[in-house]
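Anyone up for a design puzzle?
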């Protein structure tokens, strides 16, 4: 998951130090997948079994097949997310089929916020969202440990203020 230092803060040389997302995000997303598709399979099986007969209830296996496929895709997606703090900007990369790399210069950041919904709080996770002047460059790092999210917010805010002071 993680390459480089424990904080992922500084780079040495030209290669950035990438930090992956914690495994709690993958557990949360997989649990939500199992709950929702499991309930759908159960409801579909009961309805089809009662209204159309037991043969038609076999169609309740379709959500379970989607669940198995989604389980694998969630793992691949989770592994694709990483971020790196460099001297002048923050890099965020994600995507399996279509790779996307976002570069956010510290001097362009206007607002850095940490959010955590009820499900994220239950799993001990928080997200960091970066707002810039251009709406298209807003970036998010989901599923961080709350302490890391706050550390990242404070660091990015500090670097953003230092870089924008010269503008």
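Challenge accepted. My sequence:
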């Amino acid at each position: 998951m993680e390459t480089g230092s424990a904080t992922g803060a500084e780079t040495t040389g030209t290669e950035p130090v990438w930090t992956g997302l914690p495994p709690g995000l993958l557990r949360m997303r997989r649990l939500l997948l199992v709950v929702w598709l499991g309930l759908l399979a159960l409801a579909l099986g009961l309805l089809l079994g009662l209204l159309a007969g037991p043969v038609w209830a076999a169609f309740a296996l379709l959500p379970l097949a989607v669940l198995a496929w989604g389980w694998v895709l969630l793992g691949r997606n989770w592994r694709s997310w990483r971020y790196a703090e460099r001297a002048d900007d923050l890099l965020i990369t994600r995507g399996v089929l279509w790779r996307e790399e976002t570069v956010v210069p510290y001097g362009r950041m206007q607002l850095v916020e940490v959010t955590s919904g009820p499900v994220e709080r239950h799993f001990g996770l928080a997200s960091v969202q970066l707002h810039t002047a251009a709406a298209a460059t807003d970036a998010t790092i989901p599923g961080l440990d709350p302490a890391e999210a706050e550390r990242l917010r404070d660091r990015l805010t500090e670097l953003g203020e230092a870089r924008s002071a010269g503008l």
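A detail worth pointing out: The radius of gyration is 20 Å.
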